[in-house]
Automatic annotation (TrEMBL):
Residue span(s) of domain Strictosidine synthase conserved region: 150-237
Endpoints of the signal sequence: 1-24
UniProt key word Glycoprotein: yes
Keyword Ion transport belongs to the record: no
Classification lineage: Eukaryota, Viridiplantae, Streptophyta, Embryophyta, Tracheophyta
Protein name in the entry: Strictosidine synthase conserved region domain-containing protein
């Protein structure tokens, strides 16, 4: 049993404003849930099947759960078994990621309420609905240790877990180092709980990020950041085990999440080639690869790259590696 260890102060700011959208100009509400003091990097955000949360991954290795304005955040789950709160809570020391953990993506299995978590450097984990220390399911594939897992999704029909690795050579510390160049050693991976085996589905990808399984389980989509495009990998049917380009995007795409009606949201961060200023956008697309909605998040995330857009009942939870709040966007 994992008790609530700490409740933090919090603050919510609601800003009503107009946000420009290519498709429409709706009046929207944008609310911020501030993270606990000294914590940052809410890269992934999700709610559970009952709509509780949001849950959030942090740079200091924890997954937190928001209990609402009266109670704030509680510690929900951890990946590293070596993590201690005194050393790790609030840390920004990149070299502590192996001790403290660095969860970067997660996804609920809506059949079991288990939460699958990818820790960038430590591997694929699962934790039950009460949270606590997650169980590691895999730390390598084909003899290559994971260094930069970034996204995960579960096929709720089969229980099979799909996840992505940005690279087999570098980890999250390297991307901000001078002269860094991404390589094409990314992999699309599969974990089958019935055999406990990891299979490499695709390799030599140019920074694949954040897979999402389709509503009918016939395919999954993922971003290829380096090539600024969205790929589709067929899981069933005549084209099973083949990949195709679904569409290209005008910026760097990040983690994809499916909506309840079967569309997908992907953040697309457009970098101005002259000023290097980032315009964070959200694209919603359908299973034909048609973009049906675009939202510009520049007013709320000025010059930041957003990392995930997770929709439930029309409300988008926004993740971003470089801020200290969770964004809640409702048209
Ligand atoms: C946050 O960090 C500051 C500066 O390191 C420190 O003085 C303060 O106690 C920290 N607050 C919490 C809640 O950890
Ligand atoms: C990544 O960064 C770590 C820590 O600074 C360093 O030891 C390692 O050599 C770097 N790896 C690459 C591929 O640059
Ligand atoms: C946003 O992403 C671009 C492209 O990867 C990168 O050059 C830039 O530094 C990022 N901005 C921030 C604030 O992280």
């Amino acid at each position: 049993m994992y008790k609530m260890i700490s409740i933090f102060g919090f603050m919510i700011t609601t800003i009503m404003l107009f946000v420009s959208s290519v498709v429409s100009q709706p009046r929207i509400s944008f609310t911020k849930i501030l993270l606990p003091p000294n914590t940052t990097s809410p890269e992934s955000v999700a709610v559970d099947r009952r709509g509780n949360g949001p849950y959030v991954t942090l740079a200091d290795g924890r997954v937190l759960k928001w209990l609402g304005p009266d109670f704030g955040f509680m510690d929900f789950a951890t990946t590293s078994p070596d993590r201690t709160k005194d050393v790790c809570d609030g840390t920004l020391n990149p070299d502590l990621i192996f001790q403290c953990g660095r969860p970067l993506g997660f996804s609920f299995d809506t059949q079991t309420d288990n939460l699958y978590i990818v820790d960038g450097v430590l591997g694929l984990y699962v934790v039950g609905p009460n949270g606590g220390q997650a169980t590691r399911l895999a730390s390598s594939a084909e003899g290559i240790t994971f260094r930069f897992l970034n996204g995960v999704d579960v096929d709720t029909f089969t229980g099979i877990v799909y996840f992505t690795s940005s690279s087999t050579t570098y980890d999250i510390r390297n991307i901000t180092q001078p002269g860094f160049q991404p390589d094409k050693s990314g992999r699309l991976l599969k974990y089958d709980p019935s055999t406990k085996q990891v299979t490499v589905l695709l390799r030599q990808l140019y920074v694949p990020i954040g897979p999402a399984v389709s509503l009918d389980g016939s395919f999954l989509v993922f971003s290829e950041y380096g090539n600024k495009r969205i790929l589709r990998y067929w899981l069933k049917g005549l084209r099973a085990n083949t990949v195709e380009v679904l569409f290209t995007v005008p910026g760097y795409p990040s983690k994809i999440k499916r909506t309840s009606i079967g569309d997908f949201w992907v953040p697309v961060n457009i970098i101005n080639p002259a000023t290097f200023i980032a315009t964070p956008m959200g694209f919603r697309f359908n299973s034909f690869g048609t973009v049906v909605q675009k939202v510009d998040f520049s007013s709320q995330y000025a010059n930041q790259n957003i990392t995930v857009l997770n929709e439930q009942n029309g409300v988008l939870r926004v993740g971003c590696r470089t801020v200290n709040f969770i964004g809640i966007y409702s048209p």
